[in-house]
Write a structure and sequence with these properties.
Elements: H1 7-20, H2 40-55, H3 59-72, H4 77-89, H5 93-106, H6 111-123, H7 127-140, H8 145-157, H9 161-174, H10 179-192, H11 195-208, H12 213-225, H13 229-242, H14 247-259, H15 263-280, H16 282-309, E1 321-330, E2 333-340, E3 343-348, H17 350-354, E4 360-363, E5 367-375, E6 378-385, E7 390-395, H18 397-408
Antiparallel strand pairs: 1-2, 1-7, 2-3, 3-4, 5-6, 6-7
């Protein structure tokens, strides 16, 4: 179960806090030190323009405008707070912290500035200081839903789930339409071990937004913990429909199917999840796969054994199998790479075959050139044939190294060229 505080909800929370203070969105009430700023009118105009860009998710442009506002009125607490907010969501946390600190120094009664200062400190794991800022923000504005939600995140991060849940309850009380507070509260309850309570809160979140894949994932996971395996599968299937390219949703659904002993469906969802991760980042995927491969076999040994033994191969009469290598990807589908006395063959694993993947057979005499390249995250093997085709395979280095050595020892023609990068 994951904690959620989306950018969209942060924006809405900020707007609600401004409205509760009697200000229009994008232009908060002027701090006490407005009379001391260099050009208060220009600063407010720039802040409004920055807010427009910020709410349109043009963070870089918004930051540039907020910087102009700070230069136009360096003593304006709101200008510094807005710049800190945008910088934090752009992951420039050190500068964001400096701007937020300047904002609360200039106006100690700026509740929104304290709330964002605490958010920024919390993201840097400075939990004690972050909690102090959120406490100040709530003391200044007891209806500050964003401060309560951030306090909940901080307390959850420190393992104080009971107090975190209470903070989320206050956030929901002050902003009952805030989906993020429900999701975070349910996650905290799950971490505390109250899966039934978490399921109840996830259901409330779904009533707010039936299309929230995160809410359905959370509910499915909670139902699985209390033994409702059918309900778990149903919710995760809904999550997959809502977010068909979510590796997390497919992966969890695959695990749910495995709990119900539906191994075919489990393998299908597992492969989809792997392919989606592969498309997102081959390097990240491969590093994770290599690092956790032993653990994966321990947990899903039967599943993966079936997958890869599904890539069966029978040589032709008079053909000898020289070597065979698992965990080779061709067109983002895993399978088995086989070297024989006559051919180079790729055999897709069972689930890849169900998705339409087919075998690839290359006669050794047709090989024009072979190029291998490797990096820390993984390697690739490119085979060019005399008919002008190019076939590329991806694999971890622990597979590429012995495969490349084997290929280097084969007589594939005078024009073959094996290169390691």
């Amino acid at each position: 179960m994951r904690l959620v505080l989306t950018k969209a909800r942060i924006l809405i929370a900020s707007t609600l806090m401004l409205l509760s203070a009697g200000a229009r969105p994008g232009a908060a009430a002027e701090p006490e030190n407005t009379a001391n700023v260099a050009n208060p009118h220009d600063a407010l105009v720039l802040i409004e323009e920055g807010d427009r860009l910020f709410h349109a998710d043009n963070l870089n442009d918004a930051i540039a405008i907020y910087r102009k506002a700070v230069r136009a009125a360096p003593l304006n607490s709101i200008a510094h707070e807005r710049l800190a907010r945008a910088l934090s969501l752009n992951d420039a946390l050190n500068e964001a912290e400096q701007e937020a600190q300047q904002a609360v120094t200039l106006d100690g009664k700026n509740a929104l500035a304290h709330a964002w200062y605490g958010w920024i400190l919390g993201r840097q794991r400075k939990y004690k200081a972050a909690l102090a800022e959120e406490t100040i923000a709530i003391d200044l504005d007891e209806k500050n839903a964003f401060a309560y939600q951030t306090m909940g995140l901080i307390l959850t991060s420190t393992g104080d789930y009971t107090q975190a849940i209470r903070a989320y309850e206050q956030a929901i009380k002050n902003d009952p339409e805030d989906l993020g507070s429900y999701l975070n509260m349910a996650a905290a309850m799950g971490r505390k071990g109250d899966y039934a309570g978490a399921a109840s809160v996830y259901r409330k979140a779904i009533t707010l937004n039936k299309r929230s894949s995160l809410a359905h994932i959370g509910l499915g996971s909670a139902l699985g913990k209390i033994g409702d395996l059918d309900g778990q599968v149903k919710e995760l299937q809904t999550a997959v429909v809502l977010a068909p390219r979510s590796a997390n949703a497919h992966g969890r659904l695959g695990f749910a199917f495995s709990q119900k002993k539906d191994m075919r469906a489990a393998m299908r969802e597992g492969i989809i999840a792997s392919v989606l991760r592969l498309e997102t980042s081959w390097s990240t995927f491969m590093r994770a796969m290599i690092t956790t491969w032993a653990a994966v076999f321990l947990v899903f040994g039967a599943v993966f054994a079936f997958i890869f033994f599904g890539s069966r191969f029978k040589p032709q009469p008079g053909e000898d199998v020289l070597s065979s290598y698992f965990l080779v990807f061709y067109k983002e589908r895993p399978g088995r790479f086989i070297l024989t006395s006559r051919r180079l063959i790729y055999v897709p694993e069972a689930v890849s075959q169900w998705f339409g993947a087919t075998r690839l057979s290359i006669e050794r005499e047709q090989v024009e050139k072979i190029t291998c390249s490797s990096s820390v995250s993984g390697g690739s093997l490119c085979i060019a044939t005399k008919d002008g085709a190019m076939h590329k395979f991806s694999m971890p280095n622990l597979v590429l190294d012995p495969l490349s050595r084997k290929l280097d020892g084969l007589n594939l023609g005078a024009q073959s060229d094996l290169v390691s990068a």
